[in-house]
Amino acid sequence: MGFYFAQLLTGLANASSLFLIASGLSIIFGVTRVVNFAHGSLYMLGAYIAYTLVTTLPGVVGFWTGVLLAAVATALIGAVIEILILRRIYNSPELFQLVATFGVVLVVQDVALHVWGSEDLLGPRAPLLDRAVRIFGEPIPEYDLALIVIGPVVLGLIWLLFQRTRWGILVRAATQDREMVGALGVNQRFLFTSAFMVGSFLAGLGGALQVPRESVNLLMDLNIIGEAFVVVVIGGMGSVTGAFVAAVIISVANAFGVLVFPQISLILPFLVMAIVLIVRPYGLFGTPASAHGATVPEAPLRALPPAGAALFAVAVVAAAMLPMFDDGFLLVLAIDLLVAMLFAASLHFLMGIGGMVSFGHAAYFGLGAYAAALAVKALGLPMLAAMAFAPVVAALGALVFGWFCVRLSGVYLAMLTLAAAQILWGVTFQWQGVTGGDDGILGVWPARWASDRTVYFYLALVLCGAGILVIRRIAHSPFGYVLRGGRDSALRAEAIGIDLRTHQWLGFILAGALAGVAGAVFAFSKGSVFPDTLAIGQSVDGLIMVLLGGVQSLLGPLFGAAAFVLIEDWVTRLDYWRAIFGGIILAIVLLAPDGIAGFLGRAVALVRPGRTA
Question: What are φ and ψ of residue 406, in 5° steps?
Answer without folding.
Answer: -70, -10
